[in-house]
Amino acid sequence: MDLGSNIRTIRKRKGITIASICAATGLSQGFMSQVENDKTSPSIATLEQIAQALDVPLAYLLLKKEERMQVVRKEERRRTSGGTEQVDISHIGRTPHLRMTLIDLAPGASSGDTPHAHEGEEIHMIVSGSVTAQQGEDVYDLHEGDTFSWNACVPHRVWNDSDKPAVVLIAVYTDSKRDAEPI
User: Fold this and answer.
1) Residue 177: is its pLDDT beyond 60?
2) Are the C-beta atoms of 112 and 158 separated by less than 8 Å?
3) pTM here?
4) Could you give the domains of the chain?
């Protein structure tokens, strides 16, 4: 963990000097220098004081770089296709257990010719257009603003049988981490 460099980065970004951190916490400049250079590990109580002086939550100081907020600009989204060739997938973002995608379904497009299953739980929101969703014997026609969710281990299928494109926002949660899997 880069605790010291996290503290230094936050301090510099906020324009706070080591001297003012020391004045607020009662810690010595030598100790703060050692903390920022990862030469010593402060106690949780000391970290709480440093976090207060920096005006950030303690938990924020403890996050690894890959655990911090990630931004994917619209133009930077990875795009793939899936199901039938008329399905365009924009990979919006991910954490190790959760991923979000935006699916464009052309008229007649589907997630596949037959229902499929995989690990995880899914929540879908129809952003525009309308789709039909099937899981087992349940079949629903859904329209803009409607949502549905399911356990993805039960075979399921989504298709657009209208004459207009449809857009669906999907959040998928999995128990196992998906670090190596591209979004």
Assistant:
1) yes
2) no
3) 0.70
4) 3-67 (1.10.260.40), 74-173 (2.60.120.10)
